[in-house]
Amino acid sequence: MPFRSRSRPEPLDEAALYQYAVGALARQMRTVAELKRLMSRRVEQGEVGETKIAAVVARLADQHYLDDRAFASTYTRLRQENQSFGKRRVQQELTRKGVQAELVASTLETAYAGVSEEELVRRYVARKRISKPQDEKETARLVRRLVGAGFSFAIISTLLKSWELDLILPEDGSAEES
C-alpha cells in the first residue's frame, strides 16, 4: 500500500487555535518557537495565519503558560541533575529548540556556575555504569560518548588520566562508589 501524504488540516479560528496550543503545552513543555511551528500547520498561510499565531502566543505569555526563560532554566536544571549532561550538550539542545542565544548563555552561566564539570562527568560515568576502557578502541568509544554528552576534551582527558572510578571490581564484580 503506497503512503499517502498527510493533508493539511482545516485552518482553525483563534479560539480553537488557543485550545490546541494549551493542549500541546499540557502534554509537554515547549518554547515559543516550537509552539509557533506546531501552530503554523493549523492556520492559513500568510499574514492572517501569522496574526492568529501572534495573538495566541501573546495570550499564552500573558497567562504565564509560555515563557522561554522559565523553560530554559527548568530544562537546563533537569538535564544537569537527571542526565548529568555537560554544558555544551544542553546549549545545543536549547538552541535547537529555538531559545535565543543570549538567553541560553545566561541560563547556562547561572546553572553551571557552582558545578564542577569534572564532578559532572564522574556522575555521568557512574550513572551509566561505564567501566575503565581496556584498549584504544574502548577509549575511542568512551571519548565519543562523553563528547556526545557535552563534555570538553580537557575534562575527558583528565578523567582518562586519573581514572578513579573502578565501578566494577575484577575480584567479585560488585559496584563501588567513588
Explained architecture:
The protein is mainly α. Helix content is 61%, strand content 0%. Helix 1 packs across helix 3 (47-62), helix 2 (32-40) packs antiparallel against helix 3 and helix 5 runs antiparallel to helix 6 (101-111). The longest helix has 16 residues, at 47-62. The chain is elongated, with a radius of gyration of 22 Å.
Number of strands: 0
User: What is the rounded Rg?
Assistant: 22 Å
In helices, the fraction of residues equals 55-70%
| Structural class based on helices, strands and sheet pairing | mainly alpha
pLDDT < 50 runs, ≥5 residues: 165-178
Task: Kindly report how far apart the N and C termini lie.
Answer: 56 Å
In what range is the share of β-strand residues? under 5%
Quick synopsis:
By secondary structure, this protein is an all-alpha fold.
Layout of SSEs?
Elements: H1 14-27, H2 32-40, H3 47-62, H4 68-83, H5 87-96, H6 101-111, H7 117-127, H8 136-148, H9 153-161
Helix pairs in contact: 1-3, 2-3, 4-6, 5-6, 7-9
